[in-house]
Amino acid sequence: MIKSLKFHILLIAFLCFGKAYAQTDSVAYPLDPLTATEIQRVVQILKDSKTTTGKDIFNIINLKEPPKKEVLAYQPGRSFRREAFTSFYDYSKNGVTEAIIDLNTNKVISVKNIPNVIGMGLEADSVANAIVKRDKNWVAALQKRGISIDSVTHRSVFTGDLGIGPIGHREQLVIARRKKNNIDIEGLMAYTDFTTGKILKIVDEGNSFSDLVDLNYFNKDSVKETDPALKPLIITQPEGHSFQLNGHEITWQNWKMRFGVDNREGLVIYNVRYEDHGKERSIMYRGSMPEMVVPYGSPDLFQAAYNFFDAGEYRLGQGTAQSLSPGADAPENAVYVPAILHTENGVPFQVDRAVAVYEEYGGVLWRHGTVSRRATNLCIKYYTMIENYDYAFTWRFHQDGTIDVDVELTGIVEVKGVHRVTEMDEPDKDDLSYQGHSFGTLVHPHVEAINHQHFFVFRLDMDIDGASNNAVEEMNTKLVPPGPQNPYGNAFYVDQTKFKTEKEAQRSIDFETSRNWHIMNNNEMNDLGQHVGYMLMPGAQAKTFVPEGSLLRKKAGFLNHQFWVTQYSDDEIYPAGRYPASNKVYDGLPEWTAKDRAINNNDVVIWYVAGITHIVRPEEWPIMSVHHMGFTLMPFGFFSSNPTIGITNSPFIKEQFKCVEKKQPGSTIDHQ
Fold it and tell me: Is 512 in a helix, a strand, or coil?
């Protein structure tokens, strides 16, 4: 009976601790995201001013962040600039329109028509079905395969520079698949101009695989829970959590920071500070993941186009975002914070559990002998789903000043139909292969999961003890050549090279030299005469297989290097440019750094490209177990000694685990 009562008490605690944080319509700080009311006002102001026709599709309705200087100078209680940025388009017209709205005066500040660029898409581009069904040649191509037009649905991807339509038209490559079946009809594609509503060209490779396959595709509604559940492992905080959440500001131990959910970038971390002996010290002004790309490794036309710029082309799927799942996506002691996003019609909606904030057990903080301290981390986590893939981004703040950025990859891998049934079969003559090698892994008879890569570009506006006087140096560990200065062959040192300009700072990883990058303040020193700073330490990495000069490489120029440094500019946010879906339009990191601006003793932004090569395993079908990747920002000279030396273990640990007695009753030996 007592055991049962304890369980029910724990169960009640479990149900209570996944708390939701109430969303208010108030704005308390210049960087607070737009509220639902503000988004509605933006759309209404545009309609009233005849800036929109009512038929427009909204790429983005976002806070236009005030200039950095204004934000840093802001004092609580003072008024501040409040503006919205929006980009929208009409299918029947070339290009997009950008507008800036002053929310303090409810007026349109500026309107800019940009021809020959293509706005984002996802839900609105479902018009593919209606367009191709009207084309008799498309209907005939399906009939040749014994497939009725009424038995299929269609999906599409941006063609980019692969396209053949007029520049600025909303051209996409359309492919068919049978209804209630998740494998494409291979070898049949249509260059389709969504602006004119017509097919430009049909590509028909008649011998490609097009049979119906029961591929055991993951269906969330039919998941069967067949294995018995484990005994409860419940994370509780009976005295409540240790962080304070005030609007979008978080205070925890020595940390202070703000966060928001951007309608294009997802989770953004702002104004990261650490209180050091009563002094609040700045570390990072803004951190985000503003772009990612997923190149696929099959040489067919559709996979060559299937290289999503998931932020710039599909705004991380946030038009259809859904809440986190308590107890799985984040632990049950999490506090969930809502976010206001918008549909492509400009209608705001609230994701109740958009961001999870929680404390977690972090293992051992430090230890020597029997003197040990328990580590606790503060986590801010955000999940998104972009069609078949799911990604989580967790910013993990450690008590010793370290910041880990962790990316979780899961969901459903991209597949295509092939003729072979087992991996023992030779690649069929009508399937793509190279010297007997296929371009993916068989995960089901006739179903191949395609080789691919993921690249996430992180933008880190580092402000080490202030926004000015910052610099970056590269650290490479090198062996002293064996000889008189290294007679035993064991001596090595760290070679430090400070970057002066942006072109010098275009660098790649080198695990052989343990290459790291030190972001420092040129004018501030610690007690030991070392520049205060943070070190960026790469995690697991991958270099791109996309060759230089290729169409994708032109668009994703950030793949040229894995580490970049730019001089701060308010407008330089998106590393592939504002409209990467466009053909023959190039913008972003290569174009910005061509200016070769000074970055020594300046306000600098770090760009880190985290990559992974995914050769799919059969165990990742029908759904992929989570894979982790990321990087670390670690203090290097920021403190003069370990800042956690005075930390105390929680009293409950001492109460639960008594000291070991050297002599114990009934034992003839000493105990340690």
Answer: helix
Q: pLDDT tier at 287 (50, 70, 90 boundaries)?
A: very high
Helices and strands (H and E) in the chain: how many: 9, 30
**End-to-end CA, the chain:** 37
Rg, C-alpha atoms of the chain = 27
CA-nearest of 497, 519, 533 to 608 is 519
Answer left, alpha or beta for residue 577, where phi above 0 means left and psi between -120 and 50 means alpha. left
Residue 319 three-state SS: helix
Q: Please state the three-class secondary structure of 63-78 as a single string.
A: EECCCHHHHHHCCCCC
Q: Which residues of 302-338 are buried (b: 16+ CB within 10 A; e: fewer)?
A: bbbbbbbbbbbbbbbbbbbbebbebbebbbbbbbbbb
Distance CA 207, CA 202 (A): 15
* φ, ψ of residue 301 in degrees (nearest 5): -60, -45
DSSP for 267-278, written as a single string:
EEEEEEEEEETT
Tens of pLDDT, residue by residue over 555-594, are 999 999 999 999 999 999 999 999 999 999 999 999 999 9
State residue 364 phi and psi, 5-degree precision.
-95, 130
Contact status, residue 88 vs residue 58, Cβ threshold 8 Å: yes
The strands making up 255-262's β-sheet, listed across from edge to edge, are 244-246, 249-252, 255-262, 266-276, 279-293, 452-462, 604-614, 563-567
